[in-house]
Design brief:
Layout (H helix, E strand, L loop, with lengths): L7 H41 L6 E7 L1 E23 L7 E4 L6 E2 L4 E5 L2 H24 L6 H23 L4 H23 L3 H64 L4 H58 L3 H22 L4 H22 L4 H27 L1 E3 L4 E7 L10 E17 L11 E6 L6 E9 L4 E3 L2 E11 L10 E18 L4 E3 L2 E8 L2 E14 L2 E7 L12 E7 L4 H8 L17
Antiparallel strand pairs: 1-18, 2-8, 2-13, 3-5, 4-7, 5-6, 7-8, 8-12, 9-10, 9-13, 10-12, 11-12, 13-17, 14-15, 15-16, 15-18, 16-17
């Protein structure tokens, strides 16, 4: 029997097979790692490699021109003048003469108050003034008339003659007969008073009352008719004025529209406008005359009725006196007259006593003093008092006259009625008429503190309007506010811009934008701002040269505005600077990234870059 041992080859083979299995296992494990590393490398190359965007090159020409800087603000159109007109005194509105949209001239009446009380106050003030003037004249010795002086002189002469007769006792038969007749007359008057009024006296007094009453009614009717006629004339004149104003307003604005469209008016249009304006002025004068006539008619009615009422009152008082008979005072006066007449007769019939001479002498002295008072100035204190009263009367008259004038609300300037907040019958305290001057407008622009520093009065302003997109108007800075308006910690300054209303479409309240021209450089070299490249804080442009690579020129810049930049010079060492007419190369790309910008700025490095139209590196 043989002994078997494990086969050697089999062990070797088994060992080798186990190694191969382990090797296959390691390779499969490294494969995913290799794929991962490959993908990461590809991603790193993709992200780290810059791509050059597609670029196009255009050209631009160096030019000369004007470059301006401006600051912009917005605001609302306002009339150059706006006035809310009110009556300066109390009263009731009697008539309103205008309506919204009416064109008025300076001084034209707009509304009126009831003036009856004011006219009466003026008449009273005028009467007081005349009385004060007479008192001053009398105090100065100038108030007496020639007739009053003559009467005083006659009284003095009569007193002197009476004194001489009393002193000498020389009485004529005629003087004695006259004294006797005076006694008879005084006795008859006393008897009539004691007997009462006769039927004839009563009828006469009643007839006087009736005549006075009829006269009063007649005055009321006739004077009222005259006032009504004058008032109607005022209404007619006011309507004529309104018609003339409307016609003038239509012609005026039509001509302004024609001027804006054609630049100049025809002579016939100018004549038509001038004629329309004269028609307004004539109508205004006619209205003024009609108002004066109406005022005179009112005064005549007031005075005439007052006089007629006074006459009726006097006639009624006379009738009452006749009906009631003589009063105790009248009887006493008649008895005193009879006693005086008898005493005078007795004096003539008997020699004068010492007492009679004294009384006659006193009469002479009294007559002399009366004459001196008429012809000699008063004392200084009396004159001063009279002059003070005159001054007060003059002030009162002037105030009454002013109040009557203020009862008519007039236009302080030519313009357009914007608002009428009053009706006849309203209280004057709440009546308001708004008038605007539409011949020119202003706009208040709000500018920030960073923009206000370069703004000054007189600078031109280009205005545009939200509602009128095609309209551009040039205005001017009228004022600059010295103080800021602070709102929510933001400071702004108000700049007022004025301009003429050359277009009828412009209305107050429209929103507008104003561009204020603050800086202007004329006849300077200009290039598009896009043509300027910045390299390490140095500004350059690329100048195209015929048949040669582009030339890089370092430049010094000035103002920049609206896509254009001013070239004020070239860097030191440049053999040639820019000139008007030079052609510049401008690189336009579709990307705005920083890497693209860097790539664009280096396109012309080296030998001057690619020719016009070449693209970037793929």
């Amino acid at each position: 029997m043989g002994v078997s041992s494990p086969p050697v080859e089999q062990r070797v083979v088994g060992r080798l097979g186990s190694r191969k299995a382990r090797r296959r296992f390691s390779l499969w494990l490294l494969l995913p790692l290799a794929l991962l590393l490959g993908a990461g490398f590809w991603l790193w190359r993709t992200l780290s490699t810059p791509t050059m965007p597609a670029a196009t090159i255009t050209t631009a020409t160096v030019t000369t021109g004007t470059l301006t800087l401006s600051v912009t603000g917005s605001g609302t159109v306002q009339p150059i003048q706006t006035r809310n007109l009110t009556f300066p005194l109390a009263g009731t509105v009697s008539e309103v003469l205008v309506q919204v949209g009416d064109t008025v001239v300076q001084g034209q009446p707009l509304a009126r108050l009831d003036t009856e009380d004011l006219q009466m106050a003026l008449l009273q003030a005028e009467a007081n003034l005349k009385s004060a003037q007479a008192q001053v004249a009398a105090a100065q010795g100038e108030g007496a008339t020639a007739n009053e002086v003559a009467q005083a002189q006659a009284q003095l002469a009569s007193a002197q003659a009476s004194y001489e007769k009393t002193r000498t006792g020389d009485v004529t038969a005629a003087e004695l007969a006259a004294a006797q007749a005076q006694v008879v007359s005084a006795q008859a008057q006393l008897d009539d008073l004691l007997d009462g009024a006769s039927a004839i006296d009563l009828a006469t007094a009643q007839s006087s009352v009736e005549q006075a009453r009829l006269s009063l009614e007649s005055q009321r009717v006739s004077l009222s008719a005259a006032k009504t006629k004058a008032e109607s004339a005022v209404t007619t004149a006011a309507n004529s004025l309104r018609d003339a104003q409307e016609s003038y307003s239509t012609i005026y604005w039509n001509n302004r529209e024609q001027e804006r469209a054609r630049g100049e008016l025809t002579q016939s249009a100018k004549d038509e406008e001038a004629a329309a304006l004269r028609a307004v002025e004539n109508a205004q004068e006619n209205l003024h005359q009609a108002e004066l006539a109406y005022t005179q008619a009112q005064q005549a009615e007031t005075i005439g009725i007052q006089q007629a009422e006074a006459n009726l009152s006097d006639a009624e008082q006379q009738l009452a006196d006749v009906q009631s008979g003589a009063t105790a005072s009248e009887i006493a006066s008649a008895r005193a007259s009879l006693a005086s007449a008898k005493s005078n007769l007795a004096n003539l019939q008997h020699p004068a006593s010492a007492q009679d001479l004294a009384m006659a002498r006193a009469s002479v002295e009294q007559a002399r003093l009366s004459l001196e008072n008429l012809t000699s100035p008063a004392s200084a204190s009396t004159l001063a008092s009279a002059e003070a009263s005159l001054a007060q009367s003059q002030v009162a008259y002037a105030q009454a006259k002013l109040d009557l004038e203020d009862a008519t609300l007039t236009a302080p300037f030519a313009g357009v009625v914007a608002e009428v907040d009053v009706d006849p019958g309203d209280d004057a305290a709440v009546a308001t008429i708004t008038l605007i001057d539409s011949s020119a407008f202003v706009i208040d622009l709000s500018l920030s503190e960073s923009d206000i520093g370069t703004v000054a009065v007189g600078q031109p302003v280009t205005l545009s309007f939200d509602a009128l997109s095609d309209l551009r108007i040039t205005g001017e800075v009228q004022s600059v506010a010295p103080l800021a308006t602070v709102t929510s910690n933001v400071a702004t300054y108000t700049v007022r811009v004025s301009f003429q209303a050359t277009d009828a479409a412009i209305r107050a309240g429209m929103s507008a934008t104003g561009a204020i021209q603050t800086v202007e450089h004329r006849d300077v070299l200009l290039v598009p701002t896009r043509a300027i490249q910045t390299r390490n804080e140095t500004k350059v442009v690329q100048v195209q040269q015929s048949g040669q690579p582009p030339r890089t020129v370092q430049v010094r810049t000035g103002l920049s505005s609206d896509g254009m930049t001013e070239i004020v010079g070239c860097a030191e060492g440049e053999a040639a600077c820019l000139q008007a007419g030079d052609t510049l190369l401008i690189v336009n790309t579709s990307s705005s990234s920083s890497s693209s910008t860097t790539r664009q700025s280096s396109l012309f490095d080296g030998m001057g870059g690619p020719p016009p139209g070449a693209g970037g590196r793929p």
